[in-house]
Amino acid sequence: MNTEFESNPLIDRLPEHLKQFIKPQDYADYTPINQAVWRYVMRKNVDYLGKVAHDSYLDGLKKTGLEIDSIPNMYGMNRILKEIGWAAVAVDGFIPPSAFMEFQAYNVLVIASDIRQLEHIEYTPAPDIIHEGAGHAPIIANPEYAEYLRRFGEIGCKAISSARDYELYEAIRLLSILKEAEDTPEADIKKAEEQVDFLQNNMGELSEMSKIRNLHWWTVEYGLIGTIEDPKIYGAGLLSSIGESAWCMTDNVKKIPYDLSAADQSFDITKPQPQLYVTPDFAHLSLVLEQFANKMALRTGGLSGIQKLINSKALGSIELSTGLQISGVFTNVIEHEGAPVYIQTTGKTALAYREKELVGHGTESHADGFGSPIGKLKGINLAIEDMSPRDLQAYDIYEGKQITLEFEGDIKITGEIVTGTRNLQGKIVLIKFKNCTVTHGEKTLFQPEWGIYDMAVGKEVISAFSGPADVHSFDMISHVPSSKTIKQKKSAAREELENLYKNVRHIRENKPAEITLKEAFGAVTSNHNNDWLLCVEIAELTHQNNDHEFTDKVISYLEDVKLRRPEVAKLITNGLDLIFDKVSA
């Protein structure tokens, strides 16, 4: 894995499991056509979005160091982003939603460094540097929105997924790659679309991650701000799509006041959105986010939180009322009267307190799982964690004592107490036993020959969340995507066209060029008659040079292209309107 990239303090403090997604941005990989695509989209965006985007957009373009004429070097952007407390890193296409959100929690903007093909200039299903750089980056210059984004990441990365969520992520990633790649057989795209469609329509009960992804989609990606009658754009998916940014402002798209119900509104990435949500201001986004977080297992804990972790079949954590945190793959919970009375993990498990692993309680000590009763002792109103030293002695919960502890729900522990571990407030969080037997009714849960038994102390589960309490407890550097982005094919014809774009760019920048504009126009019309963008650039330069005869010739040719290729007619018109200062959407 190549991890060479220019860093800064914000990137340096990222945990290793996030750094595994970072890749170098090889600026030399951007071709002259790529640069022309960036320039076309940005010129169109600044012209049109200046009228319909939130005021922060144009200000943010300046503050984040984004240029209209050139694809940004994101590690150059970092020097400017640092001033507003953010950083940027390059990644390869879609990364898992939880990782994407965790980057946000560290104030790091994730940017897919590839750029869309000319054929997908209006919209690409794959994340690219136009979407991430020109969409997300400018708006984070607004402090209130930036804090919403950071807080969203902080909460979102703790959302518990279902086993099917990751299937959907992989399916969407594959579909986006196939659609963006050139010459992908239609059968392959259709098959990938059908798989995404099937998963989207068969997710079952939406997981926390699915719901918070919905909130992310309807705000960060496709959000509108202002009033229903006069909304402005702030969502990156709209800001980076010259097609959808115009479409969303029409009456064809229903506008709905943004509230918590958006969490239950799923989306389909393969189709235009039939409705969008409008927030009155950025502060309202944070209000809805906190309303959602209040319903998450992160804040509610309890039996339902543990069951969500079991259903996820993934690494997660619970926190007990003493502050003890148990991290692992939860596989079983025994309940009594609607409350958990025993929890069980399988495989590597770690214990922590305040996100820091307890000494002697890492995955090596609990390599085969961890089980413990939770709750109160039967017939005793006072929980162990609330007992004073005198209470503990009175109930024989004391070092060296042979004791039987009977918990509510028919959980019984018999053994000799070795020692106890206390938290900073003096509450016991763990009790260590030897010669220990743990039973639930007639079923044995632990027996003496298995070794030392560590019993967690806590009368209730106050939190349940995705991932480990201490990120250093587990080896999480395991990202192996099922698909990789496909680079554009190279051919002699493509190389010739790229060279024509390069020369026209040099002419515009007053750099030495190998050919004249007329030679470039002759070559592109003779050998590349499906191309349209280079002729738009040539028309711009001839117009600037007041060469009216040549300009008319180029425009006449472009009119022929519009007839031959009606699918690009609007793009050509929009490009020419920019040159001649006309208004178009």
UniProtKB/TrEMBL annotation:
All residue ranges annotated as the Biopterin-dependent aromatic amino acid hydroxylase family profile domain in the record: 1-260
Any Pfam family matching the protein: Biopterin_H
Cofactor(s) needed by this chain: Fe(2+)
InterPro entries: ArAA_hydroxylase, ArAA_hydroxylase_sf, Aro-AA_hydroxylase_C_sf, Aromatic-AA_hydroxylase_C
Coiled-coil region: 483-510
Keywords on record: Coiled coil, Iron, Metal-binding, Monooxygenase, Oxidoreductase
Matches recorded under PANTHER family: AROMATIC AMINO ACID HYDROXYLASE, PHENYLALANINE-4-HYDROXYLASE
Sequence similarity: Belongs to the biopterin-dependent aromatic amino acid hydroxylase family.
Protein name as annotated: Aromatic amino acid hydroxylase
Species this protein is from: Flavobacterium hankyongi
Lineage of origin: Bacteria, Pseudomonadati, Bacteroidota, Flavobacteriia, Flavobacteriales
